[in-house]
Structures are given as structure tokens and as C-alpha cells.
Amino acid sequence: MSLLEIRGVTKSFRGIRALRGVDISVEEGEILGIIGANGAGKTTLFNCITGAFAPDSGAVTLDGADITGAKTHVLARAGFVRTFQLMRPFGTMTTLENITVAVQSRGVRTEHAAREEAEELLIRTGLERWMGSTSASLPTAVQKRLELTRALALKPRVLLLDEVLAGLVPSERAPVLDLLEELRREEGVTLLFIEHIMAAVRQLSDRVVMMDQGAVLAEGAVDDVLADPRVIAAYLGKEYGDAA
Ligand SMILES: Nc1ncnc2c1ncn2[C@@H]1O[C@H](COP(=O)(O)OP(=O)(O)OP(=O)(O)O)[C@@H](O)[C@H]1O
Predict the structure, then answer these.
(1) Partner of 13 at 20 to 30 A CA spacing, among 46, 88, 103, 122?
(2) If DSSP codes are grouped into helix, strand and coil, which group holds residue 119?
(3) Residue 43, ligand 1, Cβ within 6 A
């Protein structure tokens, strides 16, 4: 049994079939890259896994337990943490306050202990010089690292990243990728990430799923999927120039 199993998941929005029977299994500790053109259904899949939407049909299981349509807070307790394409830190709070709140949300801790842990995390993710800055004032690249630090503070079992590298220039991507590699090495976190930057998909993925028009078109080892003529025709042929 895989850690996370998505079976026959469908979801429509007023006649638009965003997901048409998606089957994906994810092993514990695996890093799964999810690629596909705009509108392929990637974000809707995340929404169906993390409880933002209930699927119309199909099932999602975690460790064999049915979590289909469970509420976001129940899934958060089960260890699902998600980042969004548009980041959502509390803009008027400082970086340190944001991470302290995330640490506290894991359970009852004294404010002092939570703050200490938050400081350690911010040092680890290279954000110590921004500890006192309000989150809204940070440059995009730093906000992305803050979003990842917040995810780390929640100690995820399954982490879902939605285009965490979007809007970053290549030199800004490297520290984010290093952080994700470290997460894999040191925390053994199971990671599902949606990404258009193919260099990052190649670097991080143990396996890749390519979605097209609400369905899985190809899946397997990263080199095989990226060389698959159907993937090139449906996605890479159009976008690889920009994405690579
Ligand atoms: N809340 C919603 N209401 C209506 N339609 C939606 C909603 N969410 C997604 N859709 C539609 O479902 C389809 C799949 O969208 P989705 O955002 O999942 O694609 P995506 O692969 O994540 O694309 P992108 O790479 O642009 O983020 C699209 O046609 C989209 O317009």
C-alpha cells in the first residue's frame, strides 16, 4: 500500500471537466513532480487532495484511510501542508512572528519555546537578517523562502508545493532547491510539487506525472517522461523553451 493513493478522482466546474479520473500513487518519502500545461488540472488535483474541494467521484487515501473530501483542518492534522501559487503570509506580521505562529499551531507550546524554534528555523533557511521585517515588505525570493520555512515549521508528512519557483530568476532558485533537497535528506518528507521549470523537475523528482486535460498522460522516471513524444507534443513542444 502506498502512503497516498488517488483513485479515479473527477472534478467538474460548471461543465468544465478539470479532472477526469486521475489515478496516482505516492510512496512515503517520494518526491513526485507534477507537470502539464496551464489548465491541465494540477492545482485542482492539489485542491482535491488537501480538502479545498471535495472530488465529484473517486477516492483519496492516506495510509489506507479514506480522506476523500475531508476538511482542510483535519488533513492539516494528518500532516498535509501546502503552499500556494500566490503566497499567503500574514503581511503585517514580522517574519519571526509568522513562523512562531506556525510552530504554535502544531500544539500547545509556550510562546518562548515556539519563538526559539522559529528563530532556529529562520537561521536554517537563511532568513535571519529578515526576522524583524514585515512579511509584505520582503522581496519575492525571500517571501518564497518564508513560505517554505512556514511549511517546515508545520512539520509536514506530505508537503504539496504549487509552483514554488515561479517568479524567481535562476540565481534565486538555487537556495530554494537546496532547501528542498535538504528536506528530502533530513526529514524524509513526501513531496508533491507542481512545476514548470524543467531543470528543477529534473533535479528533484524521483518520479514525474504529466497531466493533460484533466488526466494523467504519462508517468515514470523523469528522463523517460520528458522524452515521451506524447509529453513533448502536448506540453514541452509548446513550453519547453520558456520552462527549461
Ligand atoms: N474554482 C474554479 N472554478 C471554475 N473553474 C475552475 C476552478 N478551478 C479550476 N478551474 C478550471 O479547471 C481547469 C483546470 O484548472 P487548474 O487550475 O487545475 O489547472 P492547472 O494545471 O493548475 O493550471 P496552471 O498551470 O495554470 O495553474 C481549468 O479549465 C480551470 O479554468
Answers:
(1) 88
(2) helix
(3) yes
ipTM entry = 0.95
Question: What is the distance in A from the centroid of ligand 1 to the CA of 24?
Answer: 19
* Separation of CA 143 and ligand 1 centre (Å): 24
- Is the Cβ atom of 190 under 6 angstroms away from ligand 1? no
Average pLDDT, the chain: 89
Q: Which domains does the chain have, with CATH numbers?
A: 2-87+156-240 (3.40.50.300), 90-137 (no CATH)
Residue 79 cell numbers, joined: 500532516
89-130 residue pLDDT tens: 566 889 999 999 989 988 767 889 999 999 999 998 889 999
Which atom of ligand 1 sits closest to the CA of residue 196? 25
Residue 204 neighbours by CB under 8 Å, 6+ apart: 31, 33, 177, 180, 181, 184, 191, 193
3-state helix, strand, coil in the chain (%, to 5): 45, 25, 30
How far out from the chain centre does Cα 47 lie?
Answer: 11
